[in-house]
Specification:
Elements lengths: L2 H23 L5 H22 L9 H17 L4 H25 L8 H10 L3 H16 L1
Helix pairs in contact: 1-2, 2-3, 2-6, 3-4, 5-6
Length: 145
């Protein structure tokens, strides 16, 4: 495993840990609000790594990793209620997440690789790149997912 993959793994583990801690503080809210807040906190951690390493592609695998984690978390709260339906949904999301994450891992060459769209956006945004990266590359997709 290369240094770049280890850094991404560390960033995601820290993001998940931050999300878990966040869930402990927002337990009184509706479950979907809890998940949203925890997801945004995790996104902020990934964004911090993107800034430190000057590479917004730290977020690229987030699309396919976090939905699997969220579904697993939500299933853990539901118990055996409609277990077959839960398992069918989880299987579909797990397969989708695995396929996308495997594709990312296969095609990502490391910290020297930045998605070409981010490169184009950065060239156009200039000094506003990092605010744009946070809102458009990191936060907006997080809210969609």
């Amino acid at each position: 495993m290369t240094k770049a993959y280890i850094l991404v793994l560390i960033s995601y583990l820290l993001a998940l840990a931050a999300a878990w801690v966040t869930l402990q503080f927002v337990a009184e809210y509706h479950i979907m609000i809890q998940v949203l807040i925890a997801d945004v906190v995790a996104t902020i951690i990934i964004f911090a790594f993107s800034v430190v390493y000057k590479n917004s592609s730290f977020y690229d695998a987030y699309w396919s990793v976090i939905p699997v984690v969220i579904v697993g978390y939500l299933m853990s709260l539901q118990g055996d209620a409609e277990l077959i339906r839960q398992l069918m949904l989880a299987l579909v999301i797990l397969l989708w997440g695995f396929r996308l994450t495997a594709n990312w891992a296969y095609t990502w060459s490391g910290l020297d690789h930045v998605d070409w769209r981010y490169v184009n956006l950065q060239a156009k945004a200039g000094i506003l790149w990092w605010p744009l990266s946070f809102t458009g590359v990191h936060l907006y997709p997080t809210i969609l997912v």
